[in-house]
Structure formats: structure tokens, C-alpha cells
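Two proteins, back to back. First:
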Amino acid sequence: MQTLTREEHAALVAQLEADEARIRAAVGAADTPPASPKQPEAQDQVDLADDEVMQRQDDAMLDHYRTELADIEAARARLKAGRYGICTECQLAIPYSRLQAYPTARRCMACQRRYEQLFARD
């Protein structure tokens, strides 16, 4: 089983930290309510529908960010347990190139494909 070098490990930890900082900054910006106009404007059905669509998009984005933060936390737990970079399914090393592209990866590509085929949404 090929393990990560010290340099690869440090680079991935730094990438996790940078990703978390980026996400937290985006979440902070998304949680900030927009400045309201001084005089409320009358809104028609189209305006109300647009507002609802924007709110749903914001909610979906916040859910996505929460999932990413949970994935980062899970990756940190694997780091602490000495299991980071090890596939949770087959117990083989996850290639560094996969971890560079997706530092919170829990599975190697073969196991991830199998997982997605088993749990694909119809």
C-alpha cells in the first residue's frame, strides 16, 4: 500500500484548510441579508416568484456548503485517526492525484464508482 509522503500530507492539509476558509467566507456572505431599499416597492407576482427562486438557490448553496464543511470535518477525523488517504471500502491507499482533486475523498475511484452505481438515484 502506497502511503502519502510528508510533503503530500502537508499539502493536502493546507488544501483542506484553504477550502474551509473559502467556504466559511462564502457562507458568511450568503448569510448576510441584502440591504433593503429605503422605500418598499410594490411587488407583482413575477417579482415574488423571482425572490422565491433566489431564496431557493441561496438555500441550496448553503446546504452544499454545509455538506462540504461536514466532509472536511470527516477528513480531519480520518487524519487524526491515521486513516486519511485510505479507502473506507477496500482499505487500499487513495492515489495522491485523487486526493489533490478531491481532498475529502473517502473512497478510491473503483470503490466510488461501485458506490455510485449501487446508490444511484432513479
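And the second protein:
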Amino acid sequence: MKKTCQQTVRIEGIGQSKEQAVSDALGNIQRKIMSEQKGMIIRIEPLHVEVVEAKELTYTEHFLFFFFPRKRQKFKVVLDVDVNLFLLNIDEIQFKKIEQTNGVVKTILGEQQTLR
């Protein structure tokens, strides 16, 4: 039912600062793994982080194309992260089936069957 595996995930992040870019990238780990793996993720443990690419874009922006020039920066980082995954296979869980007739009437009258 519980499965443990290791996987390398390539993620990228963009931000106004270096910290924001790395934080954005690390925040995308769960979303990336959920799209690739079947099952419910119990825990994600990063083991090793390797920087594949790190870019800094600097540009000058003007108010109304001429006034108040200021320098702006954007950072982009691409990381390879080795993660240890603990997955729960939902398909292996046996659910007990309970059928209830006249469910609406019993619910309104307060005779609702509870799951125990």
C-alpha cells in the first residue's frame, strides 16, 4: 500500500529576486510530481539540489517611455532535485460499500446513517 521511491525532478522558477526564483522553483516540486506519479503523496524529501541554469535579466524601464528610468531585474533558475517519495496507493485500499435507500427523506427526518 505504501511505496517509497527516488526520483529526479527538473523544476524552474522565476522571480524578482534570487530568493523568490529559488522559492518559486521549490514550490513547484509537488505539482510536478503529482503530474507524473500515481497515488497520493505522503511525504517529499529533497536529498540533493543541483543548479542546471541560473539567469539574471536586467533591463531599464521608463514611465511613459521617457520619464523616471529605473533598473529592474528578473531571475530565472532551473534545478534538478533528487527527492525521496513516500506514496500511498489509493487503488489498493478496500472501501466498505454502504447503500442507503430513500436517502433524502431519511436525511431530512434526521435518521441519517453514519459511517463507522
